[in-house]
Design goal:
alpha+beta; globular
Length: about 140
């Protein structure tokens, strides 16, 4: 692997980690405490596509907007599961780093819970599962 390719991978991972960490840290903690939108009677289907809670919807939208094209689609379910469809620009050896960055940002927005990040290929086939354990603060990859 050339020095430039390695540098690009490290730079991409660092930028995404910094963006996810600092942007979610600036968000409000009240987002995670909002009631599920599924219990609200007049919720449009489009609001349930990215997240089944208001805070999940917002976080899913935020992931897409701040990923600089690395994430094509994202969804949040029950404020503890994040699914992300990567773009073809993400190399296979960058997926784990991207999943770790997403898990860190997800934890910052939805603290004090075990979290799962599901990474999907551009064809929407599951390629990696990252499980964040709130007790140990460790991520297990499957």
């Amino acid at each position: 692997m050339s020095f430039l390719q390695h540098g690009r991978k490290v730079f991409t991972a660092l930028v995404l980690a910094l963006v996810l960490t600092f942007t979610t840290a600036c968000g409000t903690a009240t987002q995670a405490r909002q009631s599920p939108s599924a219990t609200q009677p007049n919720v449009a289907y489009s609001q349930l596509e990215r997240g089944n809670t208001t805070s999940g919807q917002s976080f899913g939208d935020w992931v897409i907007q701040t990923s600089h094209g690395l994430i094509r689609d994202a969804y949040v379910r029950d404020n503890d599961k994040l699914g992300a469809v990567i773009s073809p620009d993400v190399r296979p050896n960058e997926v784990r780093t991207l999943a770790r960055s997403l898990a860190q940002g997800f934890h910052n927005n939805f603290p004090n819970r075990n979290l799962t990040v599901l990474m999907y290929a551009p064809d929407k086939q599951l390629i990696l599962t990252a499980k964040y354990d709130n007790q140990s603060h460790q991520i297990e990859y499957q």
